[in-house]
Write a structure and sequence with these properties.
This protein is of the alpha+beta class. The chain has a single domain, classed as Lysozyme (Orthogonal Bundle). Helices cover 45% and strands 16% of the residues. It has a two-stranded antiparallel sheet with strand order 1-2. The longest helix is centred in the middle third of the chain and has 11 residues. It is globular, with a radius of gyration of 14 Å.
């Protein structure tokens, strides 16, 4: 969780984090009924990086962002099934693999970036 917040929010300094209190880059899909913020983001389509406008969930605080992230992976029947391996992961390596296999992010290097953050800052010491 911490490595995703670091990566997605650029250590809490991104526009989305500072103006939308969204630490995890969670987009506002049809199930979202709260406030939104429009942001231009990098997406990878067919191996090519492209900039696209998307609506993201907007929160009143970082605490709300963390709480919503915790609920996100079980918030719909599809997410319950799709992210089951992620939720059941017992270490960061399994979690990273499960996120990649679930299609959580379009960046093909998302897992490598998470692993780098976790290992460089020894975030695995916070597990359990």
């Amino acid at each position: 969780m911490l490595s995703q917040a670091i990566l997605e929010s650029a250590w809490g300094t991104s526009y989305l984090a500072t103006h939308g209190n969204n630490l995890f880059g969670i987009k506002a899909d049809a199930t979202w009924t709260g406030d939104t913020i429009e942001v231009i983001t990098n997406e990878y389509r067919d191996g090519e990086k492209k900039q696209e406008k998307h609506l993201f969930r907007k929160y009143n605080s970082w605490n709300e962002s963390v709480a919503d992230y915790a609920k996100f992976f079980t918030s719909t029947p599809w997410r319950i099934k799709n992210y089951q391996s992620f939720r059941e992961a017992t270490d960061y390596q399994q979690a990273i693999l499960a996120l990649r296999q679930s299609g959580y992010a379009t960046d093909p290097k998302y897992g490598e970036k998470l692993r780098s953050i976790i290992e460089n800052y020894k975030l695995y010491l916070l597990d359990n």
